[in-house]
Task: structure prediction
Amino acid sequence: MTKSARRTLSAHVRDLFDNVFSISKDEEVLLVEGASREEVKAYSQNGQGGPQQWDLRWDFHGSASSDWNKIVVSYLVQKLKSMHQEEKWLTQPRSDPYWANAISQKFSRLRSVYLKAKPRVCDNNSVETEVEAAERLVREKEESLKKARMDSRRAAVSFAIPILPDLQSNCKKKFKRRHGVVQGMAGFNTEQGKMEEARTWEFLRDVVAMLGTDGMSSDDSGDEDMAPVFRTRAMPWRKNIQHELDIIDRSRALDSDIFSPRGAKVTKRIRVHHPVLMSRNPVKNLPASFYDTKWLGQQKGVASEIDFPWMTILIHQS
Result:
């Protein structure tokens, strides 16, 4: 599929969210009313209620694959197909699984924005007020814009002054690469009708999205036999998810028919038994399943109340 075609299909999904939820920009998700915990619990446990087609509301505390949100996605797929016919879109119709995956990806991005805006637990165990949460979002956006300007200036002068990549840019590249892999694999398996594999990649997509840039470990660079290598640094607060990350990293190298071979080559990484511990602050407000159990037991007010069941992924040797 060409980039132009992907952009057009993404625009259709944006039109859908604008039509149903009045969301034309991601930040507008903060104005949308979600389903209450009580409604979601009643539906999940007893089958009572559930999403209503004439009043669709997301469960922002659950992933796109939650029981509640899967029903919302199914309604949206039908709505999008109706829009395709009514508005006489020129794009070729896609399969239901394709649209479901595209809608789920859009929701995952909006959910991330929504959760960031929730009041957080401060270091003194107090909870932010709505005003403090809003001020934090403004600060984070200003810091993000400032960093983007710095990165732009750095790139502009890099031809004259060789600059070693810092840890943050390293993590940003790693997040971008992994996020691209999981999105690509989820979409590819959905299109191929391999729904079990697609669900696995959707889980990995949610894991990477929840961790974000700050949840990626950085690497110490070096060389071995004149070839560049990276020695992975450990994050003491994070659950051991090396198995899941290895699946993502290996897939990009193996599935050359899905991912373009252009760009940086896959570099050898060495994981030692006693890696260097990173001094960066832990990422707060992730589901408890993302943290090292022993580390989390010594903390207060770090994990969010969001339930994120962990999927056990088995690799079948062919």
Notes: Residues 3-118 form one domain. The chain is about 50% helix and 5% strand.
